């Protein structure tokens, strides 16, 4: 158990960390800082921590582990605010969805004697804010840590143990490679989901009411990730530009080929792609990263309307 | 209650119709025909019907309602096989995911005195075969019927009542318009899901094992529909080509704009699209077409691994 954990930002990810850390007794004191008084009041009402403040520097004072849990675009100014208050020997970490940018922006502001161990839990939902969190969010998911090689092994081990205690498996990775991996497993999927929902919203030949009524044929799946927080995702695309553009380029090349197969009516090419893609889902299910239940286990039947 | 219902094809959709029709007593006799003996034996073991045969013509003899439940590409040859055996006054219907093509291919083969009322239930899962079906599949979903205007009102009303009894809401639509609607709500979503899963599978810079481990960031959502039946989806793209290419064209235009916004770092444009797309999901949830539970209600926590 550490003496003090400070969470800067207390939305979906921050509150999930707080709940599990409390449940498992990972810190004697949990200090919570956020920007808006409403959010702080909500966190306090939920009993997520022991200390609540609008002053990030106050929250990090004496903390052994400090975790930034705000959108990546806010890291620079927060790092400036807290740098002077970090205690020697403390670990500064984060949960941001991009990593090279975080090293570049926060790295130079980290005081000597503070260990900078950036991280990214590959877990989330489309909901935001302190009440969206739950203790099980990280169970069986992966958390990627991207410390520079000059960081002390002990600090890295502390963060590994911390994420394992939260329920995650942990992997170490170079920040640039992390950004490529998430570009294909998370960022480009979000981009194309946002895009197709936008396209459907703009059509004149098909009405919005038709899109909504008949969405169960596949479209609604995309609306889940396209309902994710706009500011968080704006920051992701502003800060992981080159990896996203590279992976999007690959996606578009492949889509041209597929478009052509549809145009010329190349049945064997279509069937062969559609057969190959099934195997990946099976592997994801076997790896414990997805449910085997049909339709994600969505409710069917009479209770659907009530539930929605 | 009708005397005899004939289902030609007994996969996910056919078996779901059979189960609900039995449960609600919609037909005195349910006749089932399919192509392969194994599938017929599976249907029989599940007790889905009253008569089982490999001869579609035999199944439709004396049937009041005949529903084609096979991939759309097989309709032409099946229609030829059964045309002579359809009884005068019978209704011939189907569940195929495209409609203009079905009118074109099957329409001319329908004998005088048989009423042709094509249909498409907007409901499904990624699983296939007789054991994938369940009686609740159509509850609160929409079924679109696309009869030609010259069909007798009574036959249309019979099929409307039939689908309502299965649990669906029913909408009448022109076949060409149907094909445009499903191109954006179902076919293009499937195409881009298949495509991104293919892209991820082909990368060298990111390994397949990384794609699988870190898929919970969004990618795994796409693998569900990209695990759908390859033959069914091959046939969809071969038979709804022009509507799919038109909607794909719109998607690609919009994606170019979005790609440019990422490239130039246009934060306000990104945030504004990402804000707009949230509203559509809310409407879909309000319309009872989607669960409000975070992450589709996927299991989280300790049971995830077991369930998978
Ligand atoms: N959501 C996911 O699925 C997911 C998954 C993995 C990693 N992440 C990463 O986790 C981080 C937080 O995401 P989240 O989903 O927890 O977000 P969230 O639920 O929207 O919460 C964001 C938190 O950050 C604060 N905040 C927002 N803008 C700020 C600013 N400019 N300055 C200071 N504080 C600010 C908010 O405070 P106020 O309400 O007080 O303004 C709130 O406490 C992001 O970096 C994201 O990339 C998210
Ligand atoms: N799956 C969905 O989400 C969904 C939703 C709405 C509409 N639909 C439409 O419903 C229809 C059936 O889909 P499904 O998901 O139920 O498929 P499925 O589970 O794969 O079952 C297909 C059935 O059709 C038979 N079949 C396949 N190829 C055939 C051929 N060439 N000749 C004769 N019979 C053949 C199969 O018989 P054997 O096993 O004996 O070969 C099986 O009984 C398709 O037209 C599809 O477009 C599907």
UniProtKB/TrEMBL annotation, chains A, B:
<dbReference type="Pfam" id="PF02153">
    <property type="entry name" value="PDH_N"/>
</dbReference>
<dbReference type="GO" id="GO:0006571">
    <property type="term" value="P:tyrosine biosynthetic process"/>
</dbReference>
<dbReference type="InterPro" id="IPR036291">
    <property type="entry name" value="NAD(P)-bd_dom_sf"/>
</dbReference>
<keyword id="KW-0028">Amino-acid biosynthesis</keyword>
<comment type="similarity">
    <text>Belongs to the prephenate/arogenate dehydrogenase family.</text>
</comment>
<comment type="pathway">
    <text>Amino-acid biosynthesis; L-tyrosine biosynthesis; (4-hydroxyphenyl)pyruvate from prephenate (NAD(+) route): step 1/1.</text>
</comment>
<protein>
    <recommendedName>
        <fullName>prephenate dehydrogenase</fullName>
        <ecNumber>1.3.1.12</ecNumber>
    </recommendedName>
</protein>
<dbReference type="InterPro" id="IPR046825">
    <property type="entry name" value="PDH_C"/>
</dbReference>
<dbReference type="InterPro" id="IPR046826">
    <property type="entry name" value="PDH_N"/>
</dbReference>
<dbReference type="InterPro" id="IPR008927">
    <property type="entry name" value="6-PGluconate_DH-like_C_sf"/>
</dbReference>
<dbReference type="InterPro" id="IPR050812">
    <property type="entry name" value="Preph/Arog_dehydrog"/>
</dbReference>
<dbReference type="InterPro" id="IPR003099">
    <property type="entry name" value="Prephen_DH"/>
</dbReference>
<dbReference type="Pfam" id="PF20463">
    <property type="entry name" value="PDH_C"/>
</dbReference>
<keyword id="KW-0057">Aromatic amino acid biosynthesis</keyword>
<keyword id="KW-0827">Tyrosine biosynthesis</keyword>
<dbReference type="GO" id="GO:0070403">
    <property type="term" value="F:NAD+ binding"/>
</dbReference>
<dbReference type="GO" id="GO:0008977">
    <property type="term" value="F:prephenate dehydrogenase (NAD+) activity"/>
</dbReference>
<feature type="domain" description="Prephenate/arogenate dehydrogenase">
    <location>
        <begin position="3"/>
        <end position="292"/>
    </location>
</feature>
<keyword id="KW-0560">Oxidoreductase</keyword>
<keyword id="KW-0520">NAD</keyword>
<dbReference type="GO" id="GO:0004665">
    <property type="term" value="F:prephenate dehydrogenase (NADP+) activity"/>
</dbReference>
